[in-house]
């Protein structure tokens, strides 16, 4: 594994689609397969969330310090909160041959695509927009005006889908998890990732025939 | 399924790598998933092979008739035998939304790539060339001079690997089958295949909000 670089896997999609739930299930199932890159955010911690596990929950002042110091791969302001991806660990992990898993907002994912176009970009889509509206409403964390804002935002975000590589529809969490795992395994079978290794072996075989 | 075209899946690789065994196992496991495109060949039928199932076994004269009538997607001459892919059924099956599975020689696969670049090209590679030599020898169907010719050919064929999309190493047949199935399922999740459908749904949702 360490002779090839790891893959950067980006799971993204509209707010409320269930990115966090899918990511948690992937890591519960395969705790050592991927290295999860924890984002920093200024949004309020929700019930059940843990600082340093789900996000690094930081103040606006701290976050603006990261921006000033240029230590983020990307950051975005979303419904009046900052979200961002600390850079240092990602590059180190990829170089060591391990895959890095990012779960981020669409705006941020598009910035990562610009900087690391070789990443694998997966768009998690809701089964329908009515279903998305239901999920956001049932979560009960947002006021009605925020819900309307999120739905308009979702429309814009789904328009960004074409800049991704794959679409996984989050109808059933287990199925979505299987599909994300399948995509990652398949990406590892791409010719570009193995061609040099195999050509080396061929060279060696015919070398030995001659010797 | 019928609102999108089927995928053309091409499984190929050097002679002796086990393409036929992998293809048989795929079809035994998922008999209705893919439509198998049976090739025509002028080579001798081997023990256990069935005409019209493994290949259409035809005479040189018949084959040259197909060439003259231009009814083949591709054909190639390989170790003094013709191999070719009848065209008519493939296009019809793809249009109906079903995937077509081709198992062909490398030379032929490269011609299919030129004509249908949107196909999914999978290179089945031996775990090593020494292992490939062993398999060809153990098959016991080829004379020593044919074996040497096949090994030189294999070297050239493995050089063609970079024109494929994926590499599956046939170390264990079951694992190779799983990987081929995984590649095909993943290809169905590519953005280009679903984007129009999802954008239609969004349009409909916001249309209903306005009404």
Automatic annotation (TrEMBL), chains A, B:
Function of the molecule: Essential for recycling GMP and indirectly, cGMP.
Pfam families reported in the protein's UniProt record: Guanylate_kin (PF00625)
Protein location: Cytoplasm
EC number from the UniProt entry: 2.7.4.8
GO cellular component: cytosol
Family the entry assigns: Belongs to the guanylate kinase family.
Superkingdom in the source lineage: Bacteria
InterPro entries noted in UniProt: GK/Ca_channel_bsu, Guanylate_kin-like_dom, Guanylate_kinase, Guanylate_kinase_CS, P-loop_NTPase
Catalytic activity: GMP + ATP = GDP + ADP
Annotated NCBIfam families: guanyl_kin
Keyword set includes Hydrolase: no
Keyword terms: ATP-binding, Cytoplasm, Kinase, Nucleotide-binding, Transferase
A molecular-function term among this protein's GO annotations: ATP binding
PROSITE patterns: GUANYLATE_KINASE_1 (PS00856), GUANYLATE_KINASE_2 (PS50052)
List of residues binding ATP: 13-20
Domain Guanylate kinase-like: 6-185
Lineage: Bacteria, Bacillati, Bacillota, Bacilli, Lactobacillales
Protein name from the UniProt record: Guanylate kinase
């Amino acid at each position: 594994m360490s002779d090839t670089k790891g893959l950067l896997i980006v799971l993204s999609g509209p707010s409320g689609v269930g990115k966090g739930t899918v990511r948690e299930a992937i890591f519960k199932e395969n705790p050592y397969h991927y290295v999860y890159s924890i984002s920093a955010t200024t949004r309020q911690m929700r019930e059940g969330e843990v600082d340093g596990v789900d996000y690094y929950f930081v103040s606006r002042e701290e976050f603006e310090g990261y921006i000033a110091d240029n230590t983020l791969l990307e950051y975005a302001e979303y419904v009046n909160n900052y979200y961002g991806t600390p850079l240092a660990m990602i590059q180190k992990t990829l170089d060591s041959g391990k895959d890095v898993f990012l779960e981020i907002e669409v705006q941020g994912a598009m910035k990562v695509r610009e900087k690391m176009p070789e990443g694998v970009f997966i768009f998690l889509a809701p089964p329908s927009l009515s279903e998305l509206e239901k999920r956001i409403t049932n979560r009960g964390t947002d006021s009605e005006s925020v819900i309307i804002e999120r739905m308009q935002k979702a429309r814009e975000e789904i328009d960004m889908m074409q800049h991704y590589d794959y679409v996984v529809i989050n109808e059933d969490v287990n199925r979505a998890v299987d599909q994300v795992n399948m995509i990652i395994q398949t990406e590892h079978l791409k010719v570009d990732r193995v061609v040099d290794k195999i050509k080396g072996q061929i060279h060696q075989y015919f070398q030995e025939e001659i010797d």
